[in-house]
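PROTOCOL LOG
Step 1. Enter all chains and additional molecules of the complex.
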Amino acid sequence: MTTAESTQPITALLDAETVLGIADQVWPSLVGDGEVFVPVPAPPPAETVSAWVDITGPWTGSVVLTCAPATAEALTASVLMTRPPVVVDDEDVEDALGELANVLGGNIKSVLPGESRLGLPKIGSAPSQGRLDDVCRVAGQWRGQFLTITVQGAADAPHAERNEVPL
Amino acid sequence: MKILVTDDSRVMRQIVIRTLRQAGFDDHDIIQAENGREAFEMVGAETPDLILSDWNMPEMTGIECLQALRAAGSQVPFGFVTSEGSPEMREKAANAGALFLIAKPFTEDTFKDALDGVLA
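Step 2. Run joint prediction.
Step 3. Record the structure below.
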């Protein structure tokens, strides 16, 4: 792989349709039968929580899942198939949201060129984004609630123009 | 038969166990480990008939666990259940002695296809 290829932005490597295709497999398998991620933007909530995994390789960045805390709890309850009065705790929410990000990230890593490494899931405030053209975001909703999947370059990822080897 | 499910995510262990039951493998004993090191240590004491393991885990990864087991002389059947199903990962898994690699997301049919021959 040449240096130019290795520093391509995510928009040159992946499109929203591919991300959506992966989400279409992940939702019924992990979230539950008949559950779907709908790629229709919903109004953003006042507060959000994110789970993400880092990908390090020819393309370096993160796959980030972002939703409202209440949506994260509902997702967790759905993943765990809990029914009231059982409530999910914070540890369950971190685990379930992180695992959703992990499976999305693992599948996205598989369609990227070259050999990459996948990090362990993290949860909190989404990491900073890098270049504006190094972002592939699928804004959507689950059960009518805001949820986005963002594949974003690392803030400190090398720029092609800085990384080229002089001839 | 005894199946050791290894994943650092409790949620994913629960999903794997649920899928095993949905796939019809509900009459087996299930034991759990949180990482490769714990799985490696449990093999001696618990003598599982099959290990289903995540790949990417803290402490010791799934592939490191498999390599350590084979280096220690254990031939316990081992399969991966992981979010990464690239041809390179599958080749690495097979070269290390894994019987199969189930990529997440999976269905009960994926489990049936992979496990029918192993748990028959």
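Step 4. Note key features.
The CA atoms of residues 47 and 75 of chain B lie 11 Å apart.
Chain B has a mean pLDDT of 95.
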